[in-house]
Amino acid sequence: MNTGGLTAVVLVLLSFLLHKLWSRKRSSGTSNNVGDDGSPQSDSSSLSLPIGNYEVFLNFRGPDTRDEITETYAYSKWCLKELAKIVEHQEKNGECIILPIFYMVDPSDVRHQSGPYQMAFQQHEQKNVDKETIGTWKEALRKVGALDGWHVKSKNEKIATADLVCSSVWSHLMKSHLVIETGKLFGIDDHIKLVMDKMSLDSGGATVLGIHGTGGIGKTTVATAVYNKLCTQFGRCSFLDDVREKMKENDGIISLQKKLISDISRVDIFERFSNVSQGVRIIKDRISQVKALIVLDDVDEGFKFENILGKIEDFISGTRFIITSRDKNVLLKVTEESRLYEVQEMSHPLALQLFCYHAFRNDSPSSGYEKLSEDVVSTTGRLPLALEVTGSSLFGREKAFWVDKLARLREIPEKDVVNRLKISFDTLDEEAKDIFLDIACFFIGEDKEIASYMWRDCKLYPGTYIQILVERSMIKIGDKNQLHMHDQLKYMGREIVRQENTRLPWDISRIWSREIALGLLRNKKGTDRVEGIRIHHDSYMEELGVSKECFMKLSQLRYLDINARMLIDDFDSYVPNLRWLRLKMIDGGWMPKFSVEHLVILEVSSFMSCVRYKLGALRHIKMASNLKVLKLSAHWLDEFPEFPLSGSLEILELENWYHSRSVKDQDINWSDKGEKELDIGNLGNLKVLRLRDGGVREITCETIRMMPLENRKVLHLLPSSLTTLHIIGCSQLKWLPNLENLETLIDFSIEDCPFVKEILGLGGLKSLETLSISGLKDLRNLDGLDSIYSLKSLSLICCFALERLPSMASLSKLLDLSISSCSHLTEIQGLGGLGSLQMLFIQGAKSLSHLFGFETLLSLNKLGSIEIRYCPLLTLLPFHGLDSECPSEAPVLNSLRRLFISETTGLVLQIFCRMIQLLMFPNLTVLVLIGDEIGITDTELRLDGLESMEKLVKLHLYNLRSIRRLPSLSMLVNLERLIVINLPNLQEIEGLAGLKSLEELCLIKCTSLERLPADQLYGLEQLKKLKVKNVPRLRLMEGLAGLKSLKELSLIKCTSLERLPADQLYGLEQLKMVDIYGCTNLTLTDLSALRELESRVMIEWPNSISIHNDPFEDSDDTWFVKSGYFV
User: Where in the sequence numbering do the catalytic residues fall?
Assistant: First the structure.
């Protein structure tokens, strides 16, 4: 019986048809033309149920629809025949759902054919109905009578029951309207959980959740999956798909409104309306007062919620809208940021599964196609749309076809993918298109601010259009301000440029192909269409003899990335619009002269060190009145350029730069040793100064203050315009200027400058947010730190001489505090004042004994992560409430997600273990407790309360010698990683079977552990890695057959393990590696069933053991057994 892919809902009305049911796509099926006995008036010897034509099929007696109710359902042979067919159909294919209504009849009478049902069957027997047929009818009634349904005991319950029946039927039907086979949706459960968390289903009001992301990333899939999950909870639901395209049609908005009204009201629209405002009124009057789930899929900037649906405030509390869009800004107009969900690209394992599903109709690659599959997945950028399209095109193809396809994909993406992605591009303004294509061709991974200097000078308005590209998920901005773009969008952008001229490949706006660029220059094929050229640089490149004539036609060139070795001539008069020049130097030589009239960004870098460069052309950059960015990484220079006289420079980066002879000019004082005094006195607009690995001795901006002779002194001050100052690896730097005037400085980092002993003027840094100090081994204090009220991040690393810090009580905005290897630091004061602190990291502070204010800091309930490692003298005062026996009296630290305590005093471990016992960390996801190797922390420790940490994802326990037992772990349903190392007294791990999410289990040096029984291991269906090492008393290890996801199995030096039933490993098709070593008493009988075994590392194999049907016996690799070892 074919239901057309829909679930048939069969209502068996054993006494009464309660309500006329509406079906959205087809009319309800009924037994028509029946007589008073409930049988058809036209006799038919055969019965064919029409369920395949209906969503709802009603099985009832005709007379039962009249005003007077009878109790004679079982007297109707026709009803019993239908019922038997329904039950038979349901048992054969499970496509239909039977919903019985027991109206004024006891279900037990139906189930056992007692009461009126007994009398009915007696009558059938008297009418000579054969015993086999009667037996079939009785069995059908028995099965239906055992089903959950509705038992209506009085007429007063009729209306209420009718509503319940309709709601239930509707729920079942809604499941069939948007069925997604979850086996094909890899990783969808994680999306559903995150979306539902943001939907806040229990909160009041009508709310909107927005789903956004790149085209083809899976927004519709996620929205549909969530809709399927929730539609039964709402009863009234509507899914409006492809809204963007439908709004373009004539009366498109009206058709969307009609579908919404029809879906929610559950009636066909008979009332016609011809304009949008009428539709809004009807929605407000009839729809908004019904709690509903409504999805609007794929909207764009043309979508206005109020113009289509009315005001969100008009909808009843509990109504939920899900709206998907490529444009984040569209969603922000109807909901807040906290209710937005961005669909990210798939993880590599899930992307590989999705690709393989379409390419092989399996979840893993076919033999011999593993590497090709990995390469295809990497090339597609893990975009679901591209994975599906590409995988389908490769299905059933030979390997040669795959190789050619992969090579083509690296240059030209699939047409279907391009067409889908290009929808977003086509709606952009021309300026945004230019920026997008620049990024796709040249600037992925580049600093957004650097590129913006060029775009701003070209009147492309990056401040506006970069934001638009981000909102439309076409680009992303990384944590360090880099520009990022999905690979498929990059390929699409380059294909758009390539299509500008498919006949003449050099006559396009942007050239990123090395071969095309070299052909253009060699053959003088440039045109005024070309705006950018990048030539990929090898570590060595031959001289190509590129002369100035090669640039003759490139009048609109604004970006050039080239190797100076290729050039034999100046080209300053031929590229007047050049804004950004990147020159790579390989092994020394001459630098050509270039146009500086419009130059905004200049970068000169080198592949090799200790090479002298003649940078003659750089002496002219002092005339570059528009230059904003200067980056030099040129090692030994024969002369240093003068900075622009205009003072236009805003970013100056010098890396690996030394000088070959003594020179003194306007800005640089050089010493004979290549050291120099950098005077940046004329750079009044400088915002960013980065110095790395150079020979600078002093940084000065010299000013003479006229005072009485005895008080006259030189003040060395940096430009007050600085916002970023990084000084890294300047090993000759001996002195820093006073920083007190840098009131706009936001980011200050000084690292590996061993001769710098003090930092003056910290108290004047009124805007500083990030301070990082590392490798200043003689730095003894940080006076003024307590006055940097704006500070958000503080990192102190390897400041060995630092003994004290000012109190931090005033740093109320500090978010991150990291102190590492400050071995003389004895105390930290004022922690209680860090009201915003989210992350505390202290490591290797060997002299640290006190954290003043730590208890107050915890009580503020803002910390998300605490890591205290190797602080052997640290003492924490007992916390208030830790002596209580009642967890409810202890404070609850809801914010803490990560706790890492390693190699501290036993008292510190005791305190944190006590806090665990008192259930103070209910939201902890990562817990790492590490004692010391030599047993100093061998205090009696208990981890009671661990079993209540249901959100725990990672649990690591190391060197806790006193632990004898762990509480049952069965409630840790989210735990993914359990690492237990050197717990010598641990005898048993309880509750392993309950760890349904566990992916890695590692047991090392648990010398008292004797058994891992089958009932503990068998349920770990998600376990991928199992490692047991140096567990000498382990004798029993069973239940491996239940580890369906296991990929790696390691058994090392388990000397008491005698038996590992190989038959338990037969079904482990995901197994990739088996590592058995040092298990001297282990017996294995057969490894032939391990089909997926990829490799075996060294295995200690006793001579008494024999292997039969070794799968590697006939392989090309030769395996030798020597002295009990496989090598």
Answer: 82
